[in-house]
Automatic annotation (TrEMBL):
This is TetR family transcriptional regulator. Residues 11-71 form the HTH tetR-type domain. GO terms for molecular function: DNA binding. InterPro entries: Homeodomain-like_sf, HTH_TetR. Residues 34-53 bind DNA.
Length: 197
């Protein structure tokens, strides 16, 4: 007997698990996510979860980075100062008009900035920090102690701002760079770049 053909319109088991992860996280806290609850929500066997992910923490990290890929294609995650620093145009309305699904991805990323999980916060901060350092073409180990402290301070502020804002508020974020605080961020990044040129 021939094996039934796969229905490409149905979500894969991994997609079901991913969708369930984001749903549970949006409805509660990170501690609410268990293998048992995920399996029940996704309608899959718990062994299927372990087939796709090592554990909940590994899943959280992997799914964050997959989600962030969708956002960074529009270069908006992390209140990206490089668009200002390198004279690029930042038009959030245009980005959303071209890809309306991006607001869902931003809403998901915001879940990692809430106060209920230091682990999720660290994933978010590490991603932003790595992205920024890559754009500055600087290695983490080359930073001075003061440069690290400055970046840590900026990252903590970004996590707080994103956690307290609605995804649609991103349209107004570039205006921060016209104020003294934003100018300070840009000056700090310029000085770090200059020190490592």
């Amino acid at each position: 007997m021939a094996r039934p053909k796969k229905d490409n319109n149905k979500p894969s088991i991994r997609q079901k698990i991913s969708t369930s992860f984001w749903k549970i996280l949006a409805e509660g806290s990170y501690t609410d996510i268990t293998i048992k609850r995920l399996a029940l929500e996704a309608g899959v066997n718990h062994k299927s979860i372990y087939y796709h992910f090592k554990n909940i923490d590994a899943m959280a990290k992997e799914l964050f980075y997959e989600n962030a890929e969708e956002i960074t294609s529009g270069a908006i995650l992390g209140v990206n100062p490089f668009m200002v620093l390198f004279n690029n145009i930042y038009d959030f309305q245009k980005i959303v008009a071209e890809n309306p699904e991006i607001l869902n991805h931003v809403a998901r990323a915001r879940l990692y900035t809430r106060n209920d999980s230091a682990y999720l916060n660290s994933i978010f901060r590490t991603f932003i920090r790595t992205t920024w350092l890559n754009m500055l073409e600087i290695k983490e180990e080359d930073l001075s102690q003061n440069e690290r402290a400055d970046l840590n301070f900026i990252m903590a502020g970004i996590v707080t701002i994103i956690g307290q804002s609605e995804p649609s508020d991103l349209a107004h974020w570039p205006q921060v760079y016209n104020r003294p605080l934003g100018q300070g961020i840009l000056d700090t990044l310029k000085n770090i770049k200059k020190a490592h040129a």
